[in-house]
Amino acid sequence: MKTTKIVTSFLTQDGQYLILKRSDKVRTMKDLWAGVSGIIEGNEEPLYRAKIEILEETNILEKQITLVKAGVEIRTDSPQYDNHEWLIFPFLFSVKDPKIKLNWENSEYRWITPSEITKFQTVPSLEKVLTSLL
Prior knowledge:
The chain is α+β, with helices and mostly antiparallel strands.
């Protein structure tokens, strides 16, 4: 089975959590809600990749975030390919009064409570990833 390593990060402030709607310009999971996510390249440390993705996708600098928790890796089947799985490295960061500027990968963002995540059409296992960080 092929495994793709990815990071999924949530930013939190005042009991709310940031989710992003993937744009129709990305290759996969178009128009689904997700955390700040990206593929781990080569032998990168997952935490390093998580911080890069936060900067790229939200324009929030590393000095503006504080790591709250690094979760246990979660394996989930890839919905696009047979005999393929994702190994998700979850992270939770706190942030204070961020000025979010999305790049082309996402079209919208929302601050939600954990119980509201079920109201959104999300990428696979997003609720499980968020719950693992709470």
